[in-house]
Write the structure tokens for this entry.
Amino acid sequence: MEAVLTSNKEKNYASFIHLSALTKYLIPFGNYILPIVLWGSKKDSSEFINHNGKQVLNFQLSMLLYSILLLIVSIPTLLFSIFNNVSFDEIENGDFLIEKLSSGNITGIVTIALVAIGLFCFMKIAEFFLIIYGAIKANEGESFKYPLTINFLK
């Protein structure tokens, strides 16, 4: 996007808003709380800070939504596959009898699990680097829009 005329103070503050999303590794829900607090305190004083704050929050909310959707798809499929292949008739020593579990039956389970794990890992690695890239762009005074972001805040 185009460069916006901003002061160094605004650039640094916008960069800090982007980087504040990384607090999720230290504080539960820090990737929502700190950006909301920082953005809310300065959103009326600068259009540049307002834009960057919205971008960070929209991106974090989008990542949350994508993670929930991934769990909604993968967990029921995995549970269905397990319950479909494990008999709950107990044998004498308390072990469950696994009658139908074979390599043919678990291929789908393994495929779905690997795809879900792979997508989740890729999403989290991309999120980490995109946050840093957004902070760099904000520090350079450029407006940055995260890819695949749903605009919850307009």
The chain is about 65% helix and 5% strand.
